[in-house]
Amino acid sequence: MATPDKKRHHTRIGEMLLDYGLITREQLVMALDRQVQTGDHLGSVLEGLGYLDSDTLLSVLGRQYDTPFVNLYEVNVTPEILDLLPFEQVRSLKVLPFSRTNDTLSVAMVDPSDAETIKNIESAVGTSVKPHVVPSYQINRAIIVFEKDGYGSVAFEGERLREEKVIHKERVPEMVALLKLVTDFKATELHLTAGAPPGMKINNELKRLSMPRISSAQMRDYISDILTMDQISEFESSNELDTVLTLSDIGRFRINVFKQRKSISLSARLMYEDIPSISDLNLPELVRDVALKQKGLIIIAGPAGQDKSTTLAAITDLINSSRSCNILTLEDPIRYLHKHKKSNVNQREIGIDTDTFASGLKHVLRQGQDVILISDLSNQESISAALNSAESGQLVIAAIHSLNTITAMEKIVNIFPDVLRSQIKIQLAETLLLLISQKLVPKKEGEGKIRVYEVLMNSSRVSNLIRQGQISNIGQLMHTGSEDMSSIDQGLARLCLEGEIEFDAGLQCSDNPVYFQEIIRRGRI
User: Which of 65, 169, 259, 347 can pair with 239 through a Cys bridge, CB separation 3.0 to 4.6 Å?
Assistant: First the structure.
């Protein structure tokens, strides 16, 4: 009875890889022939033949099982974790424990849907199990290493399993297949340029796919696949083009095509329609009340690449779902598409719908807008327009690149010349409702990142310090950890004490390492 199930499993993997354009029909046939000889899983055979790299195989396996995946090449397992499961079970069940958080043991499994095996492991270790899919060849290599060097006496170093392979690819997938990879691999962007393999932005890092370099001719084929004749003519005359591409069952993309070194490059950014809620992002509950105020300024701060745009979208969607008003967004670029709910939402992209933030805000007071979103307060014009709009009775939600809440306020004030700073301090003190700074920190189990927030509600004491130009003193107040304010170090320490992040990750992201370590030592905020 096991054979038909195994065959269907292989067929699904093969069909998915063909659908993505990651392998050819000929490569699949050759891999199936080899599989008959070895009896191994198809994905492992494909990787062994050099038709796939391990990261791509893991991504496809994770999507097939709808389960987290783990690359054993990139993990180190302590003897204490290994000792939780006897080697006899590791060898017979083809599994490997690799981390533990609170009462949950993360286990690498070839088949994470095998409920019986999960039950056996839970019985052996006396705790719940979180399965992670892993290619069978990685487990098999690990078992060979354990048989040779012993199991549990020393730490397991996954890097020792790695074997360099040449990836054989006869062609790069079609454009639509590459865009499908973006959505299925949970990437945010696709980057194509002549002379380099395709790249995808995943967790704010550019990952090159194990594919051949794209030729200039292939780049022309790519743009011909997705652009109309009129768009191609416009691109040829201006050397750049911005457009939106909607593909049914795949997604909506903002496409930018441009010339570089006499060849063509293309970037495609996925535009999201499923907007996470305030609760999904674990934002403080006070955000919900502040976001529904009629006027004032809400600022989302943080370094570049910390996904401030998602927080902006969640707050905007809350307003859209709760208030009957007019919402205008000025974004660079647009990442989330808002549907009209209780409110009307007009989204404008800088460089396409309007030239600059300042020009987009120029006539906003006459347009009857109640809520304004500004995706980047980067210069005097945008900051001045945001403060003036909030002062005029509108609710303004804006993002700014800064290290934390204190540097955000200092940036807003100091970007202006001396003669204007007194006015800006007064405007900021009177209009500011809430300032949140956020960072993305790697989770303890290595499955993505978790958000940590620094929160500053405006109050009479905060407002007075802003007016007096003593913004740096606000940082001392934040260490009190009251309901209206908390520092990033307190947020990091809380996640560390709750077992969500590693100590080293918290220390690396902290603003005040000494204060962070002090909280960890006393074991409470």
Answer: 259
- Residue 284, token pair as written in the block: 């403080």
Q: Which residues contact 306 (CB under 8 A, 6 or more apart)?
A: 438, 439, 440
DSSP, residue by residue, 356-407: -HHHHHTTGGGTT-SEEEES---SHHHHHHHHHHHHTT-EEEEEEE-SSHHH
214: left (phi over 0), alpha (psi -120 to 50) or beta: beta
Mean pLDDT of 227-236: 89
Q: Which is nearest to 450 in space by CA: 512, 505, 508, 516? A: 505
Residue 68, preceding bond cis, omega within 30 degrees? no
Strand, helix or coil for residue 89? helix
Cβ 345 vs Cβ 339: under 8 Å: yes
299-338 per-position pLDDT tens digit: 999 998 898 999 999 999 999 999 999 999 999 878 888 9
Q: How many residues does the chain have?
A: 525
Give the model confidence (pLDDT) of 120-164 as tens digits. Answer: 899 888 889 999 988 888 888 899 889 888 898 888 988 887 764
Distances (CA, A) of 262 to 172, 236, 443: 21, 12, 43
**Domains of the chain with bracketed CATH:** 2-161 (3.30.300.160), 175-271 (3.30.450.90), 286-485 (3.40.50.300), 487-525 (no CATH)
Q: What are phi and psi of 436, to 5 degrees?
A: -120, 130
Q: Give how far the C-alpha of residue 440 lies from the chain's centroid of Cα atoms, to the nearest Å.
A: 9
Residue written as tokens 């040449």? Answer: 166
